[in-house]
Amino acid sequence: MIKWEGVMPAVTTKFTEDDQLDLVMFEKNIKAQMEAGVNGIILGGTLGEASTLKAEEKETLIKTTLSITEQKIPVIINIAEQTTEDAIAVAKHAESIGANGLMLLPPMRYKATDFETVTYFTAIAQSTSLPIMIYNNPVDYKIEVTLDMFEELIKCDNIQAVKESTRDITNVIRIKNRFGHRLKVLTGVDTLALESLVTGADGWVAGLVCAYPAETVAIYNLVKAAKVDEAMEIYRWFMPLLELDISPQLVQNIKLAEVATGIGTENVRAPRLPLQGAERERVLKIIDTAMKNRPILPA
């Protein structure tokens, strides 16, 4: 049972300088997320550099996270495989080793039709009892999951939520108007998070939370307590940082921010490389300015 609400970090994968999993720093970050009050942990997304991880590394990360969280919050596994067969295999394996839920991307290297996309998601859903969140991001993945498609998908009881990343905030309202509480909505774009929460999103799948968990959770809690003005004060400070999430180099950007807050390193896995030159200086300046003006959070 997952409530599909609150802040759910899409966490980064920590590496050592010799390109091994850095489980010590990974645990430090997960514990910081939990101390801030997040509602779940999402593994294996873009921020987790999942496309570069070996199968055994993914399994290690899942088991490590389950051990750290001790069933206090759900651990959700992202699925972004190339074939339906592989996606089903990952879903079944995740369930067998104790994962609590799944986030599903559409087929990645083929622009599937609406019918093919629905068939793909349905096949995965029918292969597992785990609760599922569909990742709807047509900007990056070129496939939009429309309301009519969701009408078909929710015939599967375990398809329960959507990570809403269309960049159209009014889509939050359309989903809520059509499906009510049957389909929970979690905003997936950091720079539209407060606005989406105000218009009715149930939660926030966040990126910069990896470095700033307390500030992210504070914004969510303040909005849900109808203290939008107080939330806006933090959100205005946060915005230059949140913009680091909407970039092809979001992993490098966020890992630099994690260094600043002491809960990560900037080690990435090739072909990604640490930021260089003027772009590195630009990002470091944004982070440095934010750190010097970090807000005092309300109790």
Automatic annotation (TrEMBL):
Keywords: Lyase. GO terms for molecular function: N-acetylneuraminate lyase activity. Pyruvate binds at residue 205. SUPFAM superfamilies: Aldolase. GO terms for biological process: N-acetylneuraminate catabolic process. SMART domains: DHDPS (SM01130). The active site is at 135 (proton donor/acceptor), 163 (schiff-base intermediate with substrate). GO terms for cellular component: cytosol. It comes from the Bacteria. Belongs to the DapA family. This is 4-hydroxy-tetrahydrodipicolinate synthase. It comes from Arenibacter troitsensis. The lineage of its organism: Bacteria, Pseudomonadati, Bacteroidota, Flavobacteriia, Flavobacteriales.
